[in-house]
Amino acid sequence: MQMRWFELTLATVMGAIFTAFHFLPGPWCDPAPVRPLAGIFVVVVTMLYLYLVDDERRPLVGAWHRIDVGSVAGLILAAIASGSGELYALLAFVGALLGLIGFRWLKHVPF
To answer: Which residue ranges traverse the bilayer (predicted)?
Structure first.
């Protein structure tokens, strides 16, 4: 079984961001650019990852994998926004939908 270093690194970085904003909030995340930059980073990295695991490139990665990645990205964004339980649920749902269908849109984005 081959170790997927890219996925492991990505999961570690996203987990660190979630932990920092959800469990360790403080004055460090109060300056104006910190939360928006973290949110933009999560969205861009998730979009890039979903583009790279497109069905035409890696047929072993299916719809459930994309749904999971989108849901996790939504949960991380809710943690960055210091949201309520409803925001966590909403962003997880929207992330799952975008993870399911978003890779089709990403094919038209010039990288």
So the answer is: 5-24, 36-52, 64-81, 87-106
